[in-house]
Amino acid sequence: MITRRPRLLWLLLPYLLFVVALPLVNSVPLFVLWLFGATLVTPVAVALARRGDRS
């Protein structure tokens, strides 16, 4: 499925940003900033995936 629709890989970006945040839990200010940034990136990634997937 991904080989036919590689633009859906944009949807992995928010997931990876949230998973990478897990080791940063001990550093609270950076952790909060990271989660805020990942939250802001999520709609952008979804919009890019939707824009590229219109058939």
Report on the structure:
This protein has helices spanning 12-20, 28-53. It is elongated. The two termini are 15 Å apart. Helix 1 runs antiparallel to helix 2. By secondary structure, it is an all-alpha fold.
Provide a compact summary of the structure.
With 55 residues, the chain is mainly alpha-helical. The protein has helices at 12-20, 28-53.
Q: How many strand units?
A: 0
Multimeric state: single chain
Q: Indicate the radius of gyration in whole angstroms.
A: 13 Å
Number of helices: 2
Based on secondary structure, the structural category is: mainly alpha
Task: Indicate the overall shape.
Answer: elongated
- Provide the residue-averaged pLDDT: 86
Largest sheet: none
Relative strand content: under 5%
- Unreliable spans are none
Distance between the termini: 15 Å
| Percent helix range | 55-70%
* Elements, N to C (H/E): HH
Key descriptive features of the protein:
0% strand; mainly alpha; 55 residues; elongated
List the helices and strands and how they pair.
Blueprint: H1 12-20, H2 28-53
